[in-house]
Amino acid sequence: MEEIAEEVVAFGINLPGPAVFVIAGVAIVYFTIILGFGSYFARFSRNINDFFFSGQRFAWWLVAASMVATGIGSHSYIKYAQQGYETGMSSSMPYLNNWFLVAYFVFGWLPIIYFGRIRSIPQYFERRFNRVARYLAVFILLSYMFFYIGLSFYTIGVAIEGLFGIPHLYSVPILALVLGTYVTFGGQTAVIFTDLLQGVMLYTAGAICLVAGLWALGGFGEFWGWMPPNHRLPFVRLLEDPGYNAAGLYWGEALAGSIMFTFLNQGWIMRFLACRSVHEGRKAAFFNFFVTLPISAVVVGAVGWIAKSIIEKQAGIGGALEGLDPIHIENSAHTFVVAAWEILRQNPWVFGFVIAALTAALMSTIDTLINASAAVSIYDIYRPMRERFRPNTPDRHYLKAARWASVTATLIGVALVVWFVKQEATIMAMHYRGIMLIVPPLVTTLFLGCFWRRFNAVGAIVALGVGVLFTYLTTAAPYVMRPLVWLVIGVDAEFYPVGTGWEDARIGGAINPLLNIYMPALYGMLITGVAGVAGTHFSLSRVYPPIIHGLARGIRAVPLKATDMLATFMVESLHKKKDITGLTVDTINEGMARFKGGTPNHEVGKKARHLPVEFDERLPFKQVSASPAVMERLKAKEGDMVFVEDARWYLGGLRSVHTHAAKPHDLGRDVVLMSKETFEDAMFLEDRPVTLEKFF
Amino acid sequence: MSEETHSVAEKVVEKSRAHIVWTMTGLILIFTYAYPRLLVAFFGVESPWTSYFYKYGFGAVFFFTGVYIVLRNKSCILGRGRDTFWFKWLILGFIAYASVHALWILAALHLPFYGD
Questions:
Q1: Which end of chain B, N or C, is surrounded by fewer C-beta atoms within 10 Å?
Q2: Does A451 contact chain B (CB < 8 Å)?
Q3: Measured between CA atoms, how close is A592 to chain B, in angstroms?
Q4: Per-residue confidence at A508, pLDDT binned at 50, 70, 90?
């Protein structure tokens, strides 16, 4: 880790004294605005549901926009600019790998979590399997999230130290205070709105660098013409570079990495749960895969591509480009800072803005993770325990507990920075190691749970246990993956001849990144899958019940309360029939009906806009009555789910409520009737019209 | 009698399902082994088209398996509500990504480079 710190400290640019103050000033103003912005939106968190999921009310564009900042990871600018400089436009590969998963997500996982009212990944594990599976998932997920929060805090500390010389010891606690404040008091609503602002900042900063770079080069034609053909390609070669190759990226990034991000990233899931409907969630997902990810790939990689093109042009014309100092990149890890400083013509104001945006990328990752880990802590640990001893605890208690959980997650993240400082590995290596070791068992178990109805609790527990064990085994014995590498890539002497430096991949060496970075993910997924299928079939076989009864008798031989409970649990689980309606892909339609409380109405209607509201206290809470003409426009029937929002579209659902359609009124005019309680719950304003939309 | 017939029918269905699963597993293994080797033999290990077809070949298997699963399990019913609309986008997206990447490779290889 010292190696990284030295790299960033020596960024390779000499900032003049006044420039340091300007850059720091811009960053401080930025942080202040973010803090105020997040704190303002805290007022829209009324209960625990709002705190974590914003009441499932937002429009797709608001959710999609807020995902920009979440999608651009904590160290994306540094990492992708470096990769872009080294291998060119193939740095976009991790961002453009995700389409293979879309069917599973938009028609599988998204409706399952939405209609199943799933609040967290572990909660799904309990409802789909049992409590043991849930706690295994909690343990794995929380370890991963705390690890990631710590790593992100560390990264941001490294960047600040490199630019301003402020040690982690001072910078990280201050940043934690800023982040912790708006996440703790604002919850998911604050996170969504601050990430929206940060996403705009990120794209603006990226666009400034891109335009300035193209301007310096003399236009897109010059940029493309001076870029070496190998650097223009969207893919790297299949096997050439063990650290970054097309085969490894497919199995490690496109499958394991993307499934992890799309299915298991609690922060990502919570964004979709903040959407007002599955339809809006699908819009957000498609927009993200089609627009946001490609733009993000350009934003984070462009500086590296432009740097390569400028350097080639410098060599071609025999000197610096007009208006620029010559660019020399001695260490590619510094590509972003060195190239941005030069192509922005050493302007401290603009550079300060870009650095603030870079910091925004780091902050947005951390705030999402803090909120997500608090959600898991409350929904998966604290609430189930509390409800057992003190049922009917009021919601405000959990809201308070959620805020303490956010504070705790922030503090754990800060404490972990001390540990990261002592590590001797690059940020990239630590990042991949986390994904590689933690993700495969969870990804595979979740996938089997969603898409294979017969997969059961025994299968899940066996899969998680065996998966974790064997995935960790790869760190000590990477050669166990050799047959798999041989199968999917065909690694042999022809591709990795002795003397190329890649012999370790061929013989299953311990340090080769081909094995250490990408293949453990595939290996872990495969082993977990096989274990899960075997465990399920075993538990359905005739020999299973006698074995469990025998084991239970053996356990009971130890006269302890715990062993007695365990034996009882084992025997009871033999006879328990689980209700998994809505939790598997083949029961989504039943889940939808259960969510609505009636038969879904799939007829597609139109929105009814700008309707005045009148109070009618005869209507129950969260029921609205519209005129027959409005009902016809909506294609709604009595009992259908109708979403009511403030007519100002740009609020994105901030003032809104989910309701059911009551019998149409016969007032002879297009007004919406609702009780005052419903009106206040939606946070509507007097004399403001509303828009109605029927869901199903 | 009818219960017995039902149980026999269930067993037959389960057996045929097991056959399908094992056959598919075998085919996928053969494909996984043969496909990268064929690509390398045809295009060479250094060609960008090898990477392209590696990714979109294995990717297509994974993608269309997902499409089959959601259709078979009626999570997506063509003709119902907005399902057809989203299904079209799903397929269009795959084609769009594959096309853009192919055009990108062509542009990278065939547009002139100003340097040495």
A1: N
A2: yes
A3: 10
A4: very low
